[in-house]
Amino acid sequence: MSRLVCGLQPVREAIRVHGPRLELVAVDVDRRGESPQLEALARFARDRGALVHELPRAGLDKIARGVRHQGAIALAPELAIRPLEDVPMKADALVVALDEVQDPQNFGAVIRSAVAMGATAVVWPEHRSAPLSPATFRASAGAVEHATLCRVPSLPGALDVLRSRGVVTVGLDASASTAIHRAELHGPVALIVGAEGKGLRKVVKHACTALVRLPMQGPIESLNASAAAAIALYETLRQREGALKGAPLS
Question: Model confidence over 184-230: pLDDT tens digits?
């Protein structure tokens, strides 16, 4: 079964990863002549062995079913969902876990940040979470094609598994006493992010090795999940690069 991918960058990444395994790539025939990006995308798809169709905008709109497509769609293979137990946890493992994040825009943006920062895997519970949908793929700007994805029956159970494998589970909690830059993030780490407005559930907090907060100095008391995840990922990489250079935590 194929999945729908919409948007220039998501389709480009789907072509890059899947090439001839794409069922089709479709571009807006009415815009091709006036859009160098669509022209380049069609050439890239053909160079990668993908089948390219030229369709009128109405045809693309019908296939996209309301998702903004920018004149480009693809039908790609289903994403691989890996068992968490099968993902290697090396000394520099960096996992992002989401606790009931239900907004596909946030979900996709977290995946984008995780891939950009070299995260080992993205983990989320199968219930009360955003689906892997065209909106999620688009929000990830194609990064989902490169991500290691782990959907688990229970997030607390998954955190127990990670801890048993030597991974420190660090939850982001606005009320935590320790700021994230004071936490030790050098070894294998899982960063756990809660949903906007709700934060981490109590059962998830209890499954964390430590809770940390993002220092906030303005009038806004919290960030959405994707912004919080990006900051936490960056701080983890900052510490790790500093450790390689022998710099102390600040």
Answer: 999 999 999 998 888 999 999 999 999 999 988 877 777 889 999 99
Residues 50-86 have pLDDT tens digits of 999 999 999 999 999 888 999 999 999 999 999 999 9
What torsion do the CA atoms of 62, 64, 69, 71 make, to the nearest 10 degrees?
-40
Q: Which of 146, 220, 234, 71 lies closest to 242, judged by CA?
A: 234
| ∠ CA 197-143-135, rounded to 5° | 55
Q: Which fold has domain 84-244?
A: Alpha/beta knot (3.40.1280)
Count the Cβ atoms, other than its own, within 10 Å of residue 175: 8
Residues of the chain with CATH 3.30.1330.30: 2-77
Residues 6+ apart with CB under 8 A from 141: 7, 9, 10, 13, 108, 112
The β-bridge partners of 27 are 54, 72
Residues pairing with 228 in the sheet: none
- The structural architecture, per CATH, of the domain 2-77 is 2-Layer Sandwich (3.30)
